[in-house]
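Protein modeling request. Please complete all fields; requests missing the sequence field cannot be processed.
Requester role: graduate student
Desired output: 3D structure, token encoding
Chains: 1
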Amino acid sequence: MAEILVREAAGSEDVAAVRRLMQAYGEHLAVNPAGAASICLEGYERELEGLPGGYAVLLLALVDGEPAGCVALRSLKQAEPACEMKRLWVDGRFRGLRLGRLLVEEAIGWAERTGFGAMYLDTVPTAMPEANRLYEAMGFVRVERYNENPVADLAFFRREIRD
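Delivered output (163 residues):
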């Protein structure tokens, strides 16, 4: 059985691993038949070069010590203490191990420990239908647009972190 670990990215090696995973995520969006997702990647190379940049935390999933998935969280400037989940990605070689769910669970746990009351995300539903099903299964509900992302066909989700 594979040894699976999800942890905060710490140090330059972990950040480099997250960068590689996020590059694969960007490549997936760029060639995805959904099309509209490519606009999400404006300035993406700059974002990757500057990691961790504006993210409050980068979470890294490892399978038998090999980088397998990642997710990033950043604070949102809103009336409520809220954060946004970005760049959830699992390398195709590691799909089927429930890493996406584990990364989202860890992200929610981190947000709760940090004092956030809600978590938001935006996604292109046609680009990653499996992710959308995961979000709904994890208690995220669709909401109105909360940001200024220029992509027209986005879906917006929110999840309460604490009661």
